[in-house]
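From the methods appendix. Each design record in this collection lists the discretized structure first, followed by the designed amino acid sequence. Records were kept in a plain field format so they could be parsed without special tools. The example shown here is representative of the layout used throughout.

RECORD:
C-ALPHA CELLS (426 positions):
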C-alpha cells in the first residue's frame, strides 16, 4: 500500500467469542458491536472524541440493521459527529474494513478510524415464505377491496413456514464444509494433518490466555471473560470424531472446522501524528494489502477451490512489497477449516500450481510452521464471520509489538471464492 502517511495500528478490543445459541443467544449484532466499541473507547480514553470514521459490518444481519455501524457509534461514548458506514465481504469483512479506512488515513483524508465486525448465528434473520412475501406486496399495491380479497385467496397454509437462511453457496448449493472436502481431496490433505493443526491452535490459544496475552484485547460481555470454544482436547480424542460433511469418506470434523460463533471485534488505526498527540503507542503498521477472487463454480471439476483465493492474493502482495513468502516472522492464516489452511500452504509449495496458476518461475515454498497462528486462530477462538479480520489484525499487531518488531502476513479466505490479505510490520 503506497502511502504518504504510515497507518499505525494502536490496538484492538473484542468481546469473547462463544458458541452460537449459548451465552449470547439473546444478544444482537448491534449489542455486540456496541460492546466491542465501548471497550475500545474506554481502553484508549476516546470518550467524546470525534473520529475520522468507523467502518464495520456483519454477514448475517436483519434489514433493521441497515445502518449497523452508525447505530453502534450512537450507542457508544464517541462523539455523535463520528461518521460510520457498513462493510460486508463475507469472512474478510473485518480486514477489508480496516483496509478501507487505512487507505484514507494513508492519503490524509482522515487521521483516525475504527474498523471491525460482528456476527451472530443465534439471532439469524428469518424471512417469510417467498410466495407469501409476493402476496403481501401485491396486497399492498391493490387499490380496491375486491382486488385485495382476490389476492388474499392465494394464501396457503404452507406460507407460514419461514425461510431460514442456509450456510451454502448460492451458485453451487454446497456448504463451505462440502467445498472444503473437495479441496482436501484435491490437495491430498489427510485427517491427521488437520487434527494436528487444530490441536496446535487450541494449545496456542490456551497458552496465550495463561500468559495474559488477551488482557488488553478483550472486554467482558454478558458475564463472559474468555473465548468459549477452546478446549484442551488430546489428539487421540480428535481422531475419534466422525466426519461432519462427508459421512462416508470425509476428513473434516466438528473439531477441525470452525463452529458457528457469536462475537464482535474492533481495531483502532491512526496516523502517527494523531497517536503522538494523544500519547498512544504504536504497536505496528498496516503496510500492504491485496484481495483476490477465484472462479469456483463455472468450470466444473476444473474450477478453483472455493477457499483458495488467498493463494492468488498473497503472491501479488509479495511482489508489490518486494518480499518472499519466507520473509515473515509470523503468519496469521484464518482457520475457516484446518484443511483450508493446509490446502493453501500446499498450493504455495507446489511447483505446478505456482507456475501454471500464478505465472511464477518457481514455487513460493514452505513456511516455518512454528510461526503460524502462534496465539491460536479460528478453530480455537471461533469465527463470527465479520469479526475475524479485526481479531486477527489486533492480535498480530500486539504479537509484533511484544516481539520488539517484525513482520506478519495475514491471509483470510471468504465465501464467494474471495480472499483478503495484508502485511503488518514494525
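DESIGN:
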Amino acid at each position: 500500500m503506497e502511502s504518504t502517511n504510515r497507518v499505525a495500528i494502536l490496538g484492538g478490543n473484542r468481546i469473547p467469542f462463544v458458541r452460537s445459541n449459548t451465552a449470547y443467544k439473546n444478544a444482537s449484532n448491534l449489542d455486540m458491536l456496541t460492546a466491542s466499541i465501548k471497550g475500545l473507547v474506554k481502553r484508549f480514553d476516546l470518550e467524546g472524541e470525534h473520529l475520522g470514521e468507523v467502518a464495520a459490518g456483519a454477514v448475517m444481519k436483519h434489514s433493521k440493521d441497515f445502518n449497523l455501524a452508525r447505530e453502534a457509534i450512537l450507542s457508544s461514548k464517541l462523539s455523535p459527529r463520528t461518521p460510520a458506514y457498513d462493510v460486508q465481504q463475507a469472512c474478510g469483512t473485518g480486514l477489508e474494513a480496516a483496509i478501507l479506512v487505512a487507505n484514507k488515513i494513508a492519503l490524509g483524508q482522515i487521521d483516525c478510524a475504527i474498523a471491525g465486525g460482528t456476527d451472530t448465528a443465534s439471532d439469524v434473520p428469518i424471512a417469510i415464505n417467498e410466495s407469501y412475501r409476493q402476496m403481501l406486496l401485491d396486497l399492498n399495491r391493490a387499490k380496491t377491496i375486491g382486488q385485495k380479497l382476490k389476492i388474499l385467496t392465494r394464501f396457503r397454509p404452507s406460507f407460514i413456514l419461514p425461510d431460514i437462511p442456509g450456510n451454502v453457496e448460492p451458485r453451487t448449493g454446497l456448504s463451505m464444509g462440502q467445498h472444503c472436502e473437495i479441496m482436501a481431496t484435491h490437495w491430498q490433505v489427510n485427517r491427521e494433518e488437520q487434527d494436528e493443526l487444530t490441536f496446535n491452535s487450541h494449545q496456542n490459544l490456551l497458552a496465550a490466555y495463561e500468559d495474559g496475552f488477551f488482557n488488553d484485547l478483550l472486554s467482558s460481555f454478558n458475564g463472559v471473560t474468555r473465548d468459549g470454544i477452546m478446549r484442551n482436547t488430546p489428539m487421540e480424542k480428535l481422531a475419534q470424531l466422525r466426519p461432519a460433511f462427508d459421512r462416508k469418506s470425509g476428513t473434516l470434523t466438528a473439531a477441525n472446522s470452525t463452529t458457528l460463533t457469536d462475537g464482535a471485534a474492533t481495531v483502532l488505526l491512526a496516523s502517527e501524528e494523531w497517536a503522538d498527540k494523544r500519547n498512544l503507542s504504536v504497536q505496528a503498521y498496516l503496510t500492504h494489502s491485496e484481495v483476490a477472487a477465484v472462479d469456483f463454480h463455472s468450470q466444473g471439476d476444473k474450477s478453483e477451490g472455493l477457499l483458495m483465493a488467498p493463494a492468488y492474493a498473497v503472491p501479488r502482495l509479495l511482489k508489490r512489497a518486494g518480499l518472499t513468502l519466507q520473509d515473515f516472522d509470523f503468519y496469521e492464516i484464518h482457520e475457516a477449516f484446518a484443511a483450508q489452511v493446509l490446502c493453501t500452504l500446499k498450493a504455495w509449495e507446489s511447483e505446478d500450481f505456482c507456475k501454471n496458476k500464478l505465472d511464477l518461475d518457481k514455487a513460493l515454498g514452505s513456511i516455518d510452521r512454528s510461526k503460524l497462528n502462534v496465539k491460536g486462530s479460528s478453530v480455537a477462538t471461533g469465527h463470527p464471520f465479520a469479526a475475524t479480520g479485526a481479531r486477527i489484525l489486533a492480535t498480530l499487531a500486539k504479537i509484533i509489538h511484544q516481539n520488539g518488531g517484525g513482520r506478519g502476513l495475514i491471509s483470510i479466505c471468504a465465501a464467494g471464492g474471495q480472499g483478503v490479505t495484508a502485511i503488518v510490520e514494525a
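APPENDIX NOTE: Residues 155 and 339 are 47 Å apart (CA to CA).
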